[in-house]
Amino acid sequence: MGISLSSVNDIRNWRNCVTGITAYGFSFVSEIIHKPSNMKTLIYIMAIVGFISPSYAQDLVKAEVPATIQKAFSRSYPKINNVEWKQTADSYTANYKENELERSVIYNATGKQQQKEEQITLADLPTHTLKYINDNHPDGTVKKIKKVTKKSGKSIYVVSIKGLELLFDSGGNYMKPTLE
Question: What is the pLDDT of residues 23-76, one digit of tens each?
Fold first, then answer.
């Protein structure tokens, strides 16, 4: 299926509209919304940008991280110096390595720890978790294992294998994926 002439014209119109907006400011928007096809395109793009943009994390240098969050991290992890910080809409994440294993800690805007993720080894998993993996994925190679601990203290294990992420509760029992 090829691109129709009307699609090409819509693309040209959209390109011209975007060029006009950036060149002349947002007063040009009123001309865009008078055409229903342009309005529909504009709504789709705004919806996509609205859904996608909050999910991206922004890299931060230490000076951009609020002092309350830096202090909370330093109190809990005083020996960790090499930290990469990221910010999302409502949280700050400290990523670092300890004993060659990846770690991350997520804080809310007030400096309260929300979640901790720790890369662990196969030896750290409960034995019946290993049995489940061997029985159900005998040809799979484990790529990465993380222990995720929520602020409530509840932990789960996340095992990456063959492009899948298998979830296990704190006791090592397999958990079927669910939507939260």
Answer: 434 433 444 444 555 555 545 455 444 444 444 678 988 899 999 999 999 999
Residue 147 contacts by C-beta under 8 Å, 6 or more apart in sequence?
Answer: 117, 118, 120, 124, 155, 156, 157, 158
End-to-end CA distance of the chain: 38
Predicted TM-score (pTM) of this structure: 0.65
The structure tokens listed for 86 are 């990221």
DSSP 3-state of 121: coil
Report the alpha-carbon distance of residue 12 to residue 20 in Å, rounded: 12
How far, in Å, are 79, 113, 177 from residue 171 at the CA level? 30, 23, 16
